[in-house]
Design brief:
Order of helices and strands: HHHHHHHHHHHHHHHHH
Distance between the termini: 28 Å
Largest sheet: none
Shape: globular
Amino acid sequence: MMTSSFPSILRPVTAVCLALLASAWLGAQPPASKQQSPHLQQALELIKADKPAEALAAVKRELAENPTSGPAANLLDTLGATKEARAVFEKRIDAAPDAAAKAAAQRAMAMSYAFDGNHKAALKLEEQVIAYWKSREAAEPQNAFYQQGEMANEAARVCIDASDLDAAEKWYRKGSELGLKEPEPKTHPKSLWDYRLAHALGRIAARRGDKVEAQRQITIARGILDADPKMGKQQERFYPYLVGYVALYTGDLKTAEKELTKATLSTGSQNDPFFAYLLAMTHEQLGQKDRAMELYRKSYSLATAHNPAAAYARPNARKKLGL
C-alpha cells in the first residue's frame, strides 16, 4: 500500500532503493524521535511509556511554539486527538508555499482520517495527491507514475482496512495501472506491481470468503516472486503476511498462527504493528486470550508512525485493550 515522520513525497525513488520500496508499500516510516524538537522527542518517549496525557501535553507545547508542525500533528493522531491533528494539517494545506508542499499536507491529512476509519474522506485527499503527481509527469515521469501508483495503493489499503472491499479492489487495480505507466528506462519492475496486485487481490478474496480465489492469488504471487529473484529478495518478507492473512480470514487458524508468526519475525517486519495485530486476532480466535492481549499491547506500542499500518492498529488495539 505518509511531514518528516511522514516520508517526503518529493524524494525520487530509484531502482537502487528496492529495499525501501518494500517498506513504503506497508507504509513504514521513520519515527518522530528523529525530529530535533525536544518536545516531540519527549512526547514519543512518553507514548512508548504509555503516558498519553503527558505525551499530549508535550505535543501541545510544540504546537504552542510551532502551530503548523506536521510531526506534532502526526503525534496528535497517534494519541487519538484526530480532530486537533486535522486542524493543524488544514493550516499546513492553506499555508503551503507550493503544490508539492500542499500535496504532502493533503497526504498527511488523508492518514489522519484513516486513524478515524474514515476511508471516504481519506480517499478524496489521496485523489488530490494523485492529481499533483499527474502534473509532474513531464518533469519527472519515472517518479511521477510510481508515486501515483503508490498513492492509489495507499488509498486502497485504507479502504480494505475499513472493510470497503469493492473500493479497495478498484484502487489496488488503479495503483497497478498507474505504476505500470512508468516509461523506460523503468526504475520499478513490472513484477513489483504484479506481485502487489496479486497480494492485494488475495487478501480481498479472503475477506469476501472466497477461499478458492484467495489461494489462486497466493499461487500467482508465489510464481511472481520466484520468476524475479532480484525483486523477490526484497518482497519475500511480505509473502507469509499474505498466506497468514488469507488463512486468518478463511478460518485456518493454525496456518494463520504459523505464517503470521513468521511474518512478525521477518527481517524488517519485527516492528510492524499491523502484523502484530493480525497475530493477536489469531490467538484471540484460538481462545488464547493472554497471548492475544500481549500482542494487542505490542501492536499498540509499535503503532507510532503516521501510515496505514499504524492508522489501523493503534485505534483498534486501543479498543481491544480498553484504553
